[in-house]
Specification:
binds 5-O-phosphono-beta-D-ribofuranosylamine; 7 strands; single chain; alpha/beta
């Protein structure tokens, strides 16, 4: 998207929504030139939906179906339709605990972004902070990346290092990583939106400027 247009973000999350709140605050304080057009969760009582509603942002629970790690075809189709109807430019995964593949990625080709709580390609998959602690690394962090067909494998947009400290528990390390996420994610989106990052894959506008 070029010029004065503001990206319309569609945020997908399954959890408490701290990354969503950080993004919403960056929009509110003017540092991220975007707006959130829709929040979707696969978890009915997820905090992220509550945070969106408190801000007057459309928020929808879409039942994921019977699979544990992905959306069933109806849920995927419903999600694509809702995001298209909301004229979403960029899909922002913020703690969305299901793998998106095939039709979803085709519908938003190169326009799905995720944050992962490790320095990829180290520790993809679940509980990356625990994987880091168990392995014994001294530095871990978080990664903002484009989503492709793999699990946590898409092109890396930005990373931030986080030290592993003596005596860290999974909880303390996870919290330190999440603090880094809450600055890295909005900053990365803002640099991308402003065209300052040199990123080679700009999202394409799906709707004209209003
Ligand atoms: C974050 O740690 C993110 O890295 C992971 O899920 C968590 C989401 O937390 N993918 P929140 O819902 O944004 O608070």
């Amino acid at each position: 998207m070029q010029g004065e247009n503001r990206w319309r973000l569609g945020v997908l999350g399954s959890g408490k929504g701290s990354n969503f709140v950080a993004i919403a605050r960056a929009i509110e304080d003017g540092t991220l030139p975007a707006e959130v057009g829709l929040v979707i969760s696969d978890v009915e009582g997820a905090g992220i939906l509550q945070h969106a509603r408190e801000r007057g942002i459309p928020a929808r629970f879409i039942a994921p179906g019977s699979f544990r790690t992905k959306l069933d075809p109806q849920a995927e189709a419903a999600s694509i339709a809702a995001l298209k109807e909301a004229r979403i430019d960029l899909v922002v995964l913020a703690g969305f605990m299901r793998i998106l593949k095939g039709d979803f990625l085709k519908a938003f080709d190169g326009r799905v972004v995720n944050i992962h709580p490790s320095l990829l390609p180290s520790f993809p998959g679940l509980e990356a902070w625990k994987q880091a602690l168990d392995y014994g690394v001294k530095v871990t962090g978080c990664t903002v990346h484009l989503v492709d067909q793999g699990v946590d494998t898409g092109p890396i947009l930005a990373q931030r290092a986080v030290p592993v400290l003596e005596g860290d528990t999974t909880a303390s390390l996870h919290q330190r990583i999440q603090e880094a996420e809450r600055t890295l994610y909005p900053e990365t989106l803002a640099r991308w939106a402003r065209g300052e990052s040199g990123l080679r894959i700009p999202p394409q506008s799906t709707h004209p400027a209003s």
